[in-house]
Amino acid sequence: MPKETYRIGEAAKRLGLETYVLRFWETEFPQLAPMRTPKGQRVYTEETLAMLFKVKELLHERGMTIEGARRILAQGEAPAGIADAGVIRGIRNELASLRDHLKDINKD
């Protein structure tokens, strides 16, 4: 049985985003390389959509930067869980870095 696939317009609609956002994210996140039809149209699988939902959650809901989200995804965490261990670990690392930075500022 073939996997469900979605063209860029369908994928964007499911995510509640514009198609240009998906195209931009492809340039920023190597994990988001969709398959292409022989005519070059983007085709997204359920797995790609799961990764897109994770990117959206990191950027839009958690307010992370693209660089921060890229680091979380580069850790190789599975895209399924929204509040998975990789996201939590990334947030803790960001907080530790901020804490160290604030300590340095208070020393002055």
Number of domains: 1
Supply the CATH class. Mainly Alpha
- H-E string: EHHEEHHH
Percentage of residues in strands: 5-15%
Mean pLDDT comes to 83
Using the coordinates shown, work out and report the CATH topology: Multidrug-efflux Transporter Regulator, Chain: A, Domain 2
CATH architecture: Orthogonal Bundle
Multimerization status: single chain
- Kindly name the structural category: mainly alpha
Largest sheet: 3 strands, antiparallel
**Radius of gyration using CA atoms only:** 17 Å
SS field, number of helical segments: 5
Describe the structure.
- This protein has one domain: Multidrug-efflux Transporter Regulator, Chain: A, Domain 2, CATH 1.10.1660.
- The protein has five helices and three strands; from the N terminus they run E-H-H-E-E-H-H-H.
- The chain has helices spanning 8-15, 19-28, 46-61, 66-74, 85-107; strands at 5-7, 35-36, 42-45.
- Strands 1-3-2 form a three-stranded antiparallel β-sheet.
- The radius of gyration is 17 Å and the shape is elongated.
- Mean pLDDT is 83; it is low at 78-82.
